[in-house]
């Protein structure tokens, strides 16, 4: 996808490192993502890809040092609640948190306006917000679930609820961290079709270790290994057996069919 060089990057990280409990999760990492530049970030478990997403959402902060900075939409300083209005977050961890509440689907979607998991008495809920929630539910085809609890619906339906929650404030990007985890084949297919449609409107940042999650609209792939960028480039150049075998430290066979990629470990 062609980007205007004068556009402000959605994400611009330069030489950042993240340290938690004495261990470095990210090491001198640099990454730039432009608006409407759909990107997949791939890596094995423990590679640092989820930590990278938490820097984007300001759950983690890089170590302060010279010649290092982390900018989101051109700014180094953000109010977390304002930032999350611009970043629609969809993760299995978020779904788990929602499942622990007694809130109903309508309230979960409404909570997207407040960057919370529930709606509380001190939240100023407006009529426009309620209209936006109804619109988001209809768009996802789940308006009939509005009064159901998250624990009363299927995993696939719950993932649609999280998409609706992300869409209510018209975010600039969707941050998807292992989004098809725990979904069956049908639910995965429906979910990825939805993300493909949404990619026409917002930037899609997909974090996964499943190549089959990479929708056709994603052109750029970044491979993460041991807390740093291992490879970064066009999808066709990056997703090959040689690079993936080195990334996962195992003999990986990559296949592509009609723009959809898959991978499996070769038996020795």
Quick overview:
By secondary structure, the protein is of the alpha/beta class. The chain has helices spanning 49-56, 80-86, 92-99, 105-110, 127-139, 155-167, 185-198, 235-238, 241-248, and strands at residues 11-20, 23-33, 39-42, 69-72, 87-91, 173-177, 203-208, 220-225, 228-234, 252-257, 260-265.
What features would you describe in this structure?
The protein is an alpha/beta fold and 268 residues long. Helices cover 30% and strands 26% of the residues. It has nine helices and eleven strands. The chain has helices at residues 49-56, 80-86, 92-99, 105-110, 127-139, 155-167, 185-198, 235-238, 241-248, and strands at 11-20, 23-33, 39-42, 69-72, 87-91, 173-177, 203-208, 220-225, 228-234, 252-257, 260-265. Strands 5-6-7-3-8-9 form a six-stranded mixed sheet, with helices on both faces. It has a three-stranded antiparallel sheet with strand order 2-1-4, covered by helices on one side. A hairpin with a 2-residue loop joins strand 8 (220-225) and strand 9 (228-234). The chain is globular and about 50 Å long.
């Amino acid at each position: 996808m062609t980007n205007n060089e004068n556009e402000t990057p959605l994400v611009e990280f330069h030489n950042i490192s993240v340290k938690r409990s004495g261990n470095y999760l990210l090491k001198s990492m640099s990454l730039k993502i432009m608006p409407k530049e759909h990107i997949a970030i791939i890596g094995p478990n423990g590679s640092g890809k989820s930590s990278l997403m938490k820097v984007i959402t300001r759950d983690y902060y890089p170590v302060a040092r010279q010649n290092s900075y982390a900018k989101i939409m051109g700014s180094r300083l953000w109010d977390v609640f304002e930032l999350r209005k611009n970043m629609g977050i969809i993760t299995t961890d978020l779904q788990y948190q929602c499942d622990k509440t007694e809130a109903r689907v309508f309230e979960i979607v409404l909570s997207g306006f407040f960057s919370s998991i529930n709606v509380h008495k001190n939240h100023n809920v407006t009529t426009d917000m309620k209209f936006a929630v109804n619109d988001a539910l209809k768009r996802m085809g789940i308006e009939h679930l509005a009064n159901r609890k998250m624990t009363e619906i299927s995993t696939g339906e719950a993932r649609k609820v999280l998409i609706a929650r992300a869409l209510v404030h018209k975010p600039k990007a969707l941050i998807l961290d292992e989004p098809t985890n725990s979904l069956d084949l049908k639910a995965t297919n429906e979910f990825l079709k939805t993300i493909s449609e949404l990619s026409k409107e917002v930037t899609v940042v997909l974090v996964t270790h499943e190549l089959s999650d990479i929708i056709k609209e994603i052109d750029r792939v970044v491979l993460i290994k041991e807390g740093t960028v291992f490879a970064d480039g066009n999808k066709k150049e990056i997703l090959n057996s040689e690079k993936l075998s080195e990334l996962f430290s195992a003999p990986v066979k990559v296949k592509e069919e009609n723009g959809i990629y898959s991978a499996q470990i070769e038996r020795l």
